[in-house]
Design goal:
SH3 type barrels, five-stranded antiparallel β-sheet, mainly beta, about 70 residues
Length: about 70
């Protein structure tokens, strides 16, 4: 199975849904996180990274990849 790769401008709620509950690598212009994607709504995605909640606006996400 080939990995799901989501790159701008395709980082949307609909494209993130298959990754819910998965361990992912999320990248913004200024940060890189490895964690679990817990939720995504129209404007943001919620990750847990090392027991810390991280909420990122979808328009700030550069890419989200399965880890």
């Amino acid at each position: 199975m080939s990995p799901i790769v989501i790159d701008p401008p395709a980082v949307t709620q609909r494209r993130l849904r298959p990754l819910l509950g998965a361990h992912v690598v999320a990248r913004t212009a200024s940060a890189l996180w490895c964690g679990t994607l817990l939720s995504c709504v129209r404007d943001s995605a919620w990750f847990v990274v090392d027991d810390v909640d991280v909420v990122v606006p979808l328009d700030e996400l550069v890419s989200v990849l399965p880890a």
